Amino acid sequence: MRAEVAGQDFADWAGVHRLLVESFAFMEGRIDPPSSLAAVTPEGLAEKAEREVLMLVRYGARVVACGFASPRRPVLYLGKLAVTEQLRGRGLLRQMVALAEEMARDGGFEALELQSRVELVENHATFAALGFKEVARTAHEGYDRPTSITFRRVVPPSAKGQAPV
Q1: Which of helix, strand or coil describes residue 92?
Q2: CB 92 within 8 A of CB 85
Q3: Where are the domains of the chain?
Q4: 141 and 108 in contact (C-beta within 8 Å)?
Q5: How does pLDDT run across 57-100, given as a tens digit for each residue?
Q6: pTM (predicted TM-score)
Q7: Hey, CA dihedral for 24, 27, 31, 32, is it positive or negative?
Q8: What is the H or E stretch that residue 78 is in?
Q9: Which residues, other chains included, contact 31 with Cβ-Cβ below 8 Å and sequence gap of 6+?
Q10: Each residue of 129-138: pLDDT tens digit?
Q11: Which CATH superfamily is 4-154 part of?
Q12: Which of 98, 107, 116, 165 is the most buried (most CB within 10 A)?
């Protein structure tokens, strides 16, 4: 299993949708406002992939991890990151972050960025372990308190062509 960018011929949008719904289910009743995922359909994910890059990991034909990368200069924004519960802790998210970092470096982006709801402290720990640092707290429209935390990971320059130390 390894992270890859979905090809033009990718068609398992129902599988990606199922993975996201299953992976985000634990947030139900924990986050306020509720996740925007409730309004997302498999067809909506296919449309999202026309504007963003779908990263995925497959186990056989089944999608077991996914995420979207969206250019928002100077950062490459990561969203809808998910790993099937049965395979968590095996480095699949780390692989997707490494793939995103490679895309960011090749595209001239300064950093990777993502957001997590304030209530999801276990996600914050995961992102910190992957080298992300908190850079901001924001509120959804209509809220007078922070509802999201923005995390950023600087993209180091390529080691190619540098003299060894």
Answers
A1: helix
A2: no
A3: 4-154
A4: no
A5: 999 999 999 999 999 999 999 999 999 999 999 999 999 999 99
A6: 0.92
A7: positive
A8: strand 75-83
A9: 117, 119, 120, 147
A10: 999 999 999 9
A11: Gcn5-related N-acetyltransferase (GNAT) (3.40.630.30)
A12: 116
Give DSSP secondary structure letters for 140-159: -TT-SS--EEEEEEE-PPP-
Q: How far apart are CA 102 and CA 50, in angstroms?
A: 20
User: What whole-number distance in Å separates Cα of residue 40 and Cα of residue 21?
Assistant: 9
67 strand-pairing partners: 55
Q: Is 51 exposed, middle or buried (0-12, 13-18, 19+ CB in 10 A)?
A: exposed
Q: What are phi and psi of 122, to 5 degrees?
A: -65, -35
At 90, which amino acid appears?
Answer: R
> What tokens does 134 get?
């908190």
At 70, list the tokens: 């969206």
